[in-house]
């Protein structure tokens, strides 16, 4: 389904978010104070506009209150990022995601109601470290600090066994949501589905249970 997003600040982070959302077919309003940036993203957004997002009237005239999801990706100017987040939350925008520069920035935007706070360098560093130590983790999505969805490599150990035989939910407390076999995606596999080596298992669970499954089950 097509969704509407506004991205404020078109630096490396905001720019990548904007391009990716647009390429996925969503409607994206791209906003920056810098005209060059706005021109650069004209072809990678539905609308790109020069505006100062710390000015309430500018935000109003962009019709930003009609957006369900706004990403505040103002980099170094922490003050502008905080003020913009405050204005957006005052306008009752449901989802305001903010790129934080440091812990102080994080605390303040959290207090004023940011719905998700992102530390791209830190988060990517953690992710890369996970990939480095485990060849079994293909990718993961953090649902909350405690729960994640992981793509795990089906090893020799689990291949030729059915999901029921492996009894993953009872033994490890994790649930297989789907499997990828080459190009094919098997959604909600039945318990009698036989896992093949190199199948990718899409598993949801508590991080501790996922870790246990990865260490002991695979
Ligand atoms: P990154 O680290 O992701 O590259 P940058 O600090 O380089 O982030 O980019 C942030 C962007 O936010 C810049 O393009 C800047 O012009 C823009 N910006 C800064 N202040 C505002 C503001 N008040 N309203 C809109 N955009 C802003």
From TrEMBL:
InterPro entries in the cross-refs: NAD(P)-bd_dom_sf, RCK_C, RCK_C_sf, RCK_N, Trk_Ktr_HKT_K-transport
Stated name of the protein: Potassium transporter Trk
Cross-referenced Gene3D superfamilies: NAD(P)-binding Rossmann-like Domain, Regulator of K+ conductance, C-terminal domain
Any one GO MF annotation of this record: monoatomic cation transmembrane transporter activity
Domain RCK C-terminal: 135-218
Domain of life of the native organism: Bacteria
Lineage: Bacteria, Bacillati, Bacillota, Bacilli, Bacillales
SUPFAM superfamilies per the UniProt record, alphabetical: NAD(P)-binding Rossmann-fold domains, TrkA C-terminal domain-like
Domain RCK N-terminal, first and last residues per copy: 2-118
GO BP terms, alphabetized: potassium ion transport
């Amino acid at each position: 389904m097509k969704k509407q997003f506004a991205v404020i600040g078109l630096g490396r982070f905001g720019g990548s978010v904007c391009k990716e959302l647009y390429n996925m077919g969503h409607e994206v309003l791209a906003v920056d104070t810098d005209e060059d940036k706005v021109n650069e993203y004209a072809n990678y957004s539905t609308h790109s506009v020069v505006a100062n997002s710390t000015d309430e009237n500018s935000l109003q005239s962009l019709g930003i209150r009609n957006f369900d999801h706004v990403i505040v990706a103002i980099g170094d100017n922490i003050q502008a990022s905080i003020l913009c987040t405050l204005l957006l939350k005052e306008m009752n925008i449901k989802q305001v995601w903010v790129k934080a520069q440091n812990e102080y920035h994080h605390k303040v935007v959290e207090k004023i109601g940011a719905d998700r706070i992102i530390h791209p360098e830190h988060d990517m560093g953690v992710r890369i470290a996970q990939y480095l130590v485990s060849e079994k983790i293909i990718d993961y999505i953090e649902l909350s600090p405690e729960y994640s969805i992981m793509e795990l490599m089906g090893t020799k150990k689990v291949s030729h066994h059915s999901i029921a035989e492996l009894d993953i939910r009872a033994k490890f407390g994790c649930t297989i949501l789907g499997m990828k076999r080459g190009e094919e995606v098997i959604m909600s596999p039945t318990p009698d589905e036989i896992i093949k080596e190199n199948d990718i298992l899409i598993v949801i669970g508590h991080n501790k249970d996922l870790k246990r499954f990865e260490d002991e089950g695979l």
